[in-house]
Amino acid sequence: MVVRGEAGIGKTLLVRRVLDEQAGSGVRIFRGACAPMSSATAYSGLGATVTAALSQSANSQFPSAAAARAWSMQTLAGVLDDGKRSTVLLVEDVHWADWSTLDLLAHLTRNLPERRLLVLLTWRDETVEPDRLTWLGEVLRTPGLVDLPLRRLTEQETLRQLRALQPNCTAETIATVYGRSAGNPYLNVELIRGDLTVPASLRQLLLARLQALSPTARAVVAATGSLARALDDDDLLAAADSAADAVREACESGLVIRDSEVGCAARHPVIAEVAYDQLLSSERRDLHARLAKHLSERIGGDTTASVIAEVAEQYRRANDRDAAFSWALMAARAAEKEYAFAEAGHWFSVASSLWRPSDLADDRVPPRLVLAERAASLLSGAGRHVEALALLDAAVTDRDTEVGTLAALLMRGTLRGLTDDLAGAMADLQRARRLVSAGDDRTLGQVYISHAMMLRGYAHTAETAEAAQAALEHATKAGDTRTIGQARSMLGAVAAIEGRLDKAFEEAVAGLKIARDLAEPEDLAMAAMHLTFVHGLRNDTDQVVAVADTIQSELRHLMVNEHWVEGILESNAVYNLYLAGRWDEALDRDDNKGRLPSGPAFKDSQLALIHLARGNLQKAVELMHGQEVFAVDDQPQDKSDYAETMALVRLVQHRPREALALVLDSAELSHDTEDEPMAGSLLCIGLEAAVAAQSADGFDRLVALYRRAVSGFAAGALAAVVDGERSRIRGTPDPAAWLTAAQEWASLGRPYWEAQARLRAAEALLAQRRQTGARGRATAELETARQIADQLGAEPLLSRIQALAKIARVHLDDSATEHHERRGATADPQSLLTERERQVLALVAAGRTNREIGATLYMSPKTASVHVTHILEKLGVQSRVQAAAEAVRLDLTDHPESST
C-alpha cells in the first residue's frame, strides 16, 4: 500500500495510528524512514534489524554480480517472511529513498508471496527527481497494490477536526483557519494552537516557529534531517558543538521530539528541511564537519556500508576534499561488498570527481578513469544507463595514454549502444580497438563482440557474423567463457537469418546455457531472444512460449526491474500464438509485462492483430497508439511489424491505398537486407491491399521488392498466395492456387490463413459455377472455412463467409465436408493436444493445482488455467477428474520435465 499526499496531510499520523493499534496482537512490525540526505546510503529506509542479514554476505560466492544482487534481495525478503506470524514493513518518506531501498521495495511489491505480509509506504507528493516518479509509476501498476492518495479536508471536516481539539472554538475561528490552511490538517492544528496572523503556508509557519530559537538550537533542528535515521543524544551534542543548553532548547520547543528508545527526530520532516534551508553556507559546512568528525570516531572495525556512507556524505557536504575522497572510496567498496550497486556507483563517481594526481602517491588509490569506469559499470548494472553515460562523457578525454582509457571506451561504447547512439558507439569501439595490444585476446574478444552487438539490430548481417566469429576465436584462446557464450548466441542469430536453422538452434542453445551458468541477465535475455526467434522460424510455437516464460521467470529472479528484452520475448510468444490460432492463450498474456509507464509494449502490435481478426477495431487502434516510435528506418524489422498491423487497420477501415503505401514503404527499406526473407506476412497483406486498390503497378512492385520473402518453411504457401492474388488482380480468380495455399497453411498449423485461403478458393469456384462440381466444392470450402473462423472467434472473416454463402444460396449447416474433414470427435484425442498441453495434462493427472503446474512448467497460474480449459474442450470432458482419466487412458501420466 502506498499512502500519498502533500506535507502535513496526515500520512505519518495515519500509518502510525494503524500500526499502534496492532501493538500486542503478535504482528511483527518493522519500521524505517528515509531522509533528505539518505539517497546515497544503501538500504537507509529499512532499519538495522532488516539489513543486519546482509552481514552474512562476506564469505558468499556468486557466479555474477546479478546473482549476488538477487541473493541480497532474497535475503532481505526472507527476514520479512514468517509463515507463522503476520508482518508489516513500514517505510516512510520513500520519495527520499536510496536506490537499494527502492529496488527492494519494488521486488517485494511485485513478488508478494502467499503469506501475511503488508508493505506500507508513504510518499510526499511534491517535486522529486523524474526517475523516482518513474519508479512510483511502475510500482503503482503492480496488481494488488493499493494506492491511497490523501486529500485536503473540506470545511466541514476541518470543523470536526478543530472541535475535537478545542470544543469551544467559534465558527468564525474555524472559517478563518480554513481560509488560511485550505484544509491542510497539520496547518489546521498549528494555526488553532498559535497566532492566526502567522503566514498561511506550512513552511512559512514553521519558519516563524524556528525564529524563536537560538542559532545553535536551530542547527540542532537542522541536524535531524542530515542523517537517514533518528539521532541519539551524542549526535545532537555534536551538532550543537557540545552546547547541551541548545539541545535542550530545541527539544523543549517541541520542534525536536526526544524518545529514549527510538531516538531524536524533528516533529515533522518539513521542520528539519526548513531549518537546514535557513542555515548559511558556512554554517552548513561547520555542521557537517562536526557531525563527520563525531561519526567517524564512532566507527569500529566491522561496520556496514550505510554507516560508512553517512560519514562520507558529511565530509562531502563539509567540503573537506581529502577526507571526502578517502571516505567516498571506503563507502563505494563497502556498498559493492553488500551488492548495493547504485550506491557503490555513486560513491565511485564522487571519488572520481574529487581525484587529484597527488592521490596516486597512495598505491591503494586507483587512477581517475578507473574510478569513473567502475562507477559507470555499477550504475549501468543498476539500470542507471543515462547517468553512467553522462559520467563517462565527462571523464573520458582525447588522451589515449591515460590509464583506464581502454576500459572506459568499451563501457561508454556499450552505453551509447543502449541509448541508440550507434555512431558514437562505433567510434568508441574503433578507438578502443586501436588501443588493444596484439596479444590481448581477452580484450580483443570483448571489442569484437561489442561490435557485433551494436550491428545486430541494424541489418548488418555480414559484418555481425564477421565480428562475432572474431570474438569467438579470440575468446576461445583467452578462455573467456562469457564472451564465448555471447558470440555463439550471436552466431546462432546470424545462422537463423541465413536459413541454417539446425546450426542456429545449436548455437543459440549453447549461448543460453553459458548465460545461465554465469547468471548474467543481459546475456540470458539476448540468448533467449535469439532462441525464440529460431523456434519461431522452425514453426515450434510451444517452444517459443516455453522459452519466453522460462527465461522471464529467471530474469525476474536476477533483476529487480524488467529487462527491455522481455518485451521482445513476450512479442515473439504472442505473435507465434497468433500464427498458431491460439488466440485466447495470446490474449491471456495481455498484462503489464513488457509495458513501461512511459511507452507502449512491443507485443501490442501482435495483440492488435488478434483484436482486428476478431472485429475489435477500436481496441486494435488503442494498442497501436504510440507504436510509431518503433517504426524507424534504422530498425527495418520493427518498422515491418508496425506496417503489418497498421496496414491491416487501414484495410479494415476501407483505406487500401494507405495500406499499400505502408507496405511498400517498409518493403523499400527491407529489400535486399536480412529482413526481406522474414516479410512473408507483410507480403500477403500488401498483395491484398494492392488488389483492393486495383493497383497493378503496386502489386508488381511489391512482388519484386519481396522476392526473397517467398522462402523458408512457408515458401509453398506464400508462392500459392502470390499466384492467387495475381489471378484476382487480373480478374480471373484461380481456385487451384487458393486450394494449394489452404493445404499448405493447414500443414503448417496456420488456421486463420487456411480459412482465408478457403474463402478465396470458394469465391473462385463460384465464379466458375458452370463447371461440373464447382458449386459443391465451393460449399465444402466455405463450410470448412466457417468452422475454422467460428473456432477462432474471427467474426469479420465469419461474416464474409456467411455473406458469400447467402449470395451464392449455399446452406452451410446442411453441407457435407468429406473433402476437408476437420479433426474432431472421430480423431485420436492425443493428436488434438499440443506438446505443451500433453505436459499440462500429465500434471493434472498427478493432482497438481494450476499454481503448481505453472511453477513446474515456468508459466503463470493464469496461463496454466487457459491450457487446462483448452484440454477439457479438446477431450470433450467437463472436469479435471475426467481429464485425468483420459490421461491414464492415453498413457500421458509421466511427469514432464520443465523445458526450454
Summary keywords:
6 domains; 63% helix; five-stranded parallel beta sheet; 900 residues; 4% strand; Rossmann fold; globular
Question: Largest sheet, if any?
Answer: 5 strands, parallel
Just give the CATH class of the largest domain. Answer: Mainly Alpha
Give the overall pLDDT as a whole number. 88
Query: From the coordinates shown, what is the CATH architecture of the largest domain?
Result: Alpha Horseshoe
* Uncertain regions spanning at least 5 consecutive residues: 592-599, 814-827
| Count of separate DSSP helical elements | 45
Number of strands: 7
Q: What share of the residues lie within helices?
A: 55-70%
The coarse overall form would be globular
- Rg from alpha-carbon coordinates: 33 Å
* Strands ordered across the widest β-sheet: 2-3-4-1-5
